[in-house]
Amino acid sequence: MSDPVPEFDFDLSAQPHDAFFKAVFSDPAHAAALLRGHLPQGLVARIDWGSLELVPASFVKGNLRQSHADLLFRAQLGGRETLFYLLCEHQTAVDPAMPLRLLGYLTELLTDHERKHGLPLPPVLAFVLHQGPERWTVSTAFEDLFGLPEEVAEDLADFLPKFRHALLDLSQADPAAEEDDAPLRLALQLMKLARARQLHEEFIEWMVGEICAAGGLSESLLAWVLLYAFHADSTLDAERVLRRIQQAPASKSAMTIAQQLIAKGHQEGHQEGRQEGRQEGRQEGTAKGVWIGKITALQELMGMATDVPEALAMLETAELERRYQELRRECDVRFRQ
Predict the structure, then answer these.
(1) Which of 15, 67, 237, 292 has the most C-beta neighbours closer than 10 Å?
(2) What's the pLDDT tens digit per position in 259-293?
(3) What is the pTM of this model?
(4) Is residue 177 assigned to a domain?
């Protein structure tokens, strides 16, 4: 299937982790695979997964948008609506106040529901996907935030809010070995290693093997995988990655139009960079080549007339970067339409 890019306000170059999470898991099929694999199986058996649908809503505000992204879903469970709140946390340090933060989001969500629909309230299951490099070492239970002595905790229990959130800690998980669903396995492993900047040669070979083995991957997911990998780790050799995919047995299905455009842009950029003269000029030329490749890729992706690489090479690196950022913003606007 070739689903359109979801309607979210994001800038892939500035917030690649946020953008990739939303692009992948806004698809109910991918969200369902994540939830089915990491919620209690008794609960999983009672959910009508065919009814799972995305609810347009976001509760992350202000500076937290730089390190958190959220999605809201609803589905039928036992004949009534149940909500699933997915929060992707990709900041460097673990947030010990996460249950408190979630309580604020869930309160806002339920208050809005009561205002619009009245009572009863729908159950809300909070799920945190931790993409940070550190192990999640803090409690997932809200009541643990009070730090009460054992002798008074039992007496106060009935008077305190009580809930816990589900958690998938990518710093401790091994998606490549633990996930059965092919798209989920590829997405989570990429998120894990991209955050740790470990998109090394072994991962590239594994990724190509996954793309070849999972012929059912959508073109949109394949495109997002490559875009995210290139933006999340600027040291990744995009030309080599794309050439390796082209050489793979399943390259015809894997190399979508968007990917071919990206490949062409990056290849032109690297070639332009290598054509510069002396060592000092070669370093500048390589930097220019990267921006030229990105500019050309976006222009072709949006159906625009492409600039001549030789003409672009005459511009300063700062000007190339400025042109790329303008195209990136225009591309984001088109994707949201």
Answers:
(1) 292
(2) 454 544 545 444 544 444 334 444 455 567 778 87
(3) 0.74
(4) no
